[in-house]
Amino acid sequence: MDKKIRVLVAKPGLDGHDRGAKVVARGLRDAGMEVIYLGLRLTPEQIVDSAIQEDVDVVGLSCLSGAHMALLPKTASLLREKGGKDILVVAGGIVPSKDIPQLTKAGIARVFGPGTPIAEIANSIRTTLEGKKR
What we know:
It is a single chain. Strands 2-1-3-4-5 form a five-stranded parallel beta sheet, with helices on both faces. It is of the alpha/beta class. It has five helices and five strands, in the order E-H-E-H-E-H-E-H-E-H. The protein has helices spanning 19-30, 44-54, 68-81, 100-105, 118-133, and strands spanning 6-12, 34-42, 58-63, 88-93, 110-112. Helix content is 44%, strand content 23%. The protein is globular.
């Protein structure tokens, strides 16, 4: 039996809207993944420390505050610095399409906009992790 994919879902910054993150967390759980939801108003350091301690495969960040260009790259950078360079980082929320190339360059593997089907998110995570094993 294959190991369950472990996903940490978190909301960095001062954003107080977490309905979408909770929907994604539950959807990924229903898709067979083990999901840890950290909650709101976290620092990148808190997220990274939890990701390392929980030995997750994926960090899913949700950001609706408009601070995505600061918080998401910082979280990805800290993950690399603290030994989590193999952890896949994905994001969701209101992210203008013009910002996505820069986020990708900063280490965010994929940005899922509002309304993205959960199955698409789960399949993208599985496919990317399988590709990393090869």
